[in-house]
Amino acid sequence: MNFVSRVFRRNHIGGALLLEVILFIASATFWFGVVLSTTLRWWKVVGAIIIVLLQLLAWMWVRRSREQWWPWLRAHLKRYTSLLDAVPGHYVNISILLASGLGLYLELMVIRWHGSELRIFSIFKNISLLSCFLGLGIGYGLGAVRFLAMPLVLPALATQFVLLRLVRLTPVQFLLVNPVAERGAQSMELATWPNMLVIYGFLAMIFVVNGLTFIPLGQLVSRFMIRRSRLQAYGLNLAGSLLGIGLFTGLSYLWAPPAVWLLIGGCWLLWFLRGHALALLTSGAAMALAITVASLPTASNAVERYSPYQVLTLRVLAGVSPFLEVNHLWYQRMYDLRPEAIQRFPDLEKEGRGYDFPYVIKPDATAVLVVGSGTGNDVAAAVRHDNVS
């Protein structure tokens, strides 16, 4: 962590170029993997090449036009940094507290949100965790060496929200699953090198983008901490971290959805942008876009609820029993096995035999113990049994 921070402090242009190259390679790997993992057609290969070339041209244009847009952006970021450095001394303690809490809150939000949005992150949880941790650590190491890029944090987060939601709405999401073939019937078809390109290319992209997003958050905290003694600053940092953890834990306990997570985190971050109209405008617009995207339903036949641990999805399809998904993985069907329902749908009778089997063995049972009730099929069977009170 110290080595990476020193690279950014001494040669931030070289470090930025290295990250840009890594991001470009990861993106190109992802697109070629998407093409090669499906039925190979010449137009798909041409399409992937065109996409990669367009990315390359865009990257080259951004770098060549740097002299036009970089001075303007740097001037705005330096102006914002000077406003932050001018915060009166009696506000420094509360600023350390709130900045520390914001970093931990957004870290937990991103970790939980990644896993809730795409199933690949519920398997590789440490991708989100380590990228947040790395970004915060680099930011803490930078301190007052460079200007702050806080006005870019919410637009970067909004970009992630939109990107992951778009991926979730396309067939690409079905390629982003567990690449490790655990059993013959699970993931064997994905243990091929084209699918590896898709999965690991995508993970590398998100790791880099997310890590860069969290650098300003760490630098914000350290910039305030250097204005206090080490012991006092560290104590306020710990207290603020507990504040952020406690707040997000409370929201999870209340089953709050991602739109609420982002609304609170975004307003918290906007407080640090006060006094800079352009930063407030762009960040507020980015937050509104991300909240809108996060609030949109992913399917007309599905209802999502965010429990303290997972996202639960109830899917209701015509002609079949509804079923439940946990973190976008199939979990269990919910059967209506009442006699009148079986009369309407005779095929349900064979499903009910398994749930009624315990009462065939012990028809005089008056009490039952259900360990892991799932969607309630076993409990419903007990209720249908006349002797069970």
Keywords:
single chain, 389 residues, mainly alpha, four-stranded antiparallel sheet, 15 helices, 4 strands, 67% helix, 5% strand
Task: Describe, in plain words, how this protein is organized in 3D.
The protein has helices at 2-10, 12-36, 42-64, 66-85, 92-117, 119-123, 125-142, 153-168, 193-225, 230-253, 258-271, 277-295, 339-344, 348-361, 377-384; strands at 302-306, 311-315, 323-326, 329-333. The chain is mainly alpha-helical and 389 residues long. The protein folds into two domains: 2-296, no CATH class; 303-384, no CATH class. The chain has a four-stranded antiparallel β-sheet, with no helix packed on it. Helix 2 (12-36) packs antiparallel against helix 3 (42-64), helix 2 (12-36) runs antiparallel to helix 9 and helix 11 packs antiparallel against helix 12. The chain starts with a helix and ends in a 5-residue tail after the last helix. The model has no long low-confidence stretch (mean pLDDT 82).
